[in-house]
């Protein structure tokens, strides 16, 4: 057999294995398999970091811009508005501070998995240089606070505040934002930057509510129970048998830290992640001082180009992510045999790395992932695989089926009971569900029509941001919008766009704007034109949140994002702004509004 024939035979066998592994994991309940943190599970959603006794008087006020969400999207929007001199702004968040995901995710080992020099926004504006290539969560959280302080956002923030509904007032031409603290904010413009992965979910394992030991979700880490902190050892785990459910990006980071301290750790796996080399390192001061103005945007764009398979010249970030696409620019849309063979070689390397690090052969075998590399978000970590060699760590592989049952004091997998004191759910966040469900409140637009009703047939937007019937509203999400491996890059661009639009309205006396139905339909056709190979790629992938648990529903076609390269999407927004006519948008000026 020639080398080519051997490679083809290996590819054929591997594809059959990928397919069989996918079949094992397909479930009829798809995304319905998860439980949200309400009712019985309400306590899982409690904020362990904020003052539980916090009280304040209700706020009733008029404001130019209300921003819902103080995570990267909301923070950047407020900062960009401040740079344009628009400071009559209010930011509302259920958390006790700015930071979004970096407020909530304080689990041990949390760090950015995208290089911090391109992930942490506004480094040039704040004059800050991260201490490491992959900064740890407390440093990123502190950077969010730095941005908020620099742009004077703290006295504009309403924290520990849950929005209950937002309602457009036809007569006043204002949004009214109502909250659980009795606030009534009347805003001319509304930005909803609720985050795409912010609503924690639990697996719907039978008996999950019966467990009498301690349990919590990774995004609500209970250091009172574990002891320690994001940076200090969790001494109170020394006499605890702990189960960590899930092996996604979060658990890969948290697992080695729990393993260091727990009496015993059971890592419960449904689908293994790919875990490549992290090679984190301190920032080189000489490199930092050599940076020229404009360096961060250049570096962000360089990375985004590379991971979209576009020509970018030198690979400035040069890490695991950029190398995947450097070797296989079409890693997200494999369609030729050549691309398949490159992906196979990359996955063979991932599997060989496991084999070379994990000493127990059965554990090593079970940790091997069988799918195309980009089917799940790739992970990079240098302590995760070695931690399986510790005597106090057991991999509980569920053969793709998940935990069978939870009892008062144990979890059961394949008929075997594992008694534990504590269950930590690294089970991820709601995505791909309805917009209202993820947001947690309803949006009522013109004539009191809810977004749920207006979008009953699927979302309709211009650029994924503006929606007809919902004047002066700007949504930061991935529905019909751009998708990014570096989420901070996408948020930076959306914040630029929304702040420009608001500034234009103020400058030109535009009181109300909303897209035309024709522009929304044309945008949807642009999205359809970009579906191509990427959607096909995900359709054949192992189930996960990238493909609605393997059940991509053709009736949800209107939820598709812009599948083309992010920088093409960004260019569409830039061209639209440069054109200056607000093409596809109906506007009402001050005079018309006054006459109403
Ligand atoms: P994921 O959704 O990626 O992982 C959830 C895990 O729970 C999966 O391993 C899943 O298995 C498992 N699971 C679900 N149900 C069961 C069950 N019934 N029994 C056993 N296991 C189960 O969530 P993460 O929180 O890990 O990551 C979410 C995202 O957050 C990442 O993909 C990444 O985008 C982001 N992130 C970003 C970071 C950054 O620095 N930018 C850092 C960390 C996370 P299965 O795979 O079979 O579904």
From TrEMBL:
Keyword Oxidoreductase listed: yes
Molecular-function GO terms, alphabetical: monooxygenase activity
Keyword RNA-binding: no
One Pfam assignment: FMO-like
Cross-referenced InterPro entries: FAD-binding_Monooxygenases (IPR050775), FAD/NAD-bd_sf (IPR036188), Flavin_mOase-like (IPR020946)
Cofactor(s) named in the record: FAD
Keywords: FAD, Flavoprotein, Monooxygenase, NADP, Oxidoreductase
Protein family (similarity comment): Belongs to the FAD-binding monooxygenase family.
Name this polypeptide is given: Monooxygenase
Organism listed in the record: Sphingomonas psychrolutea
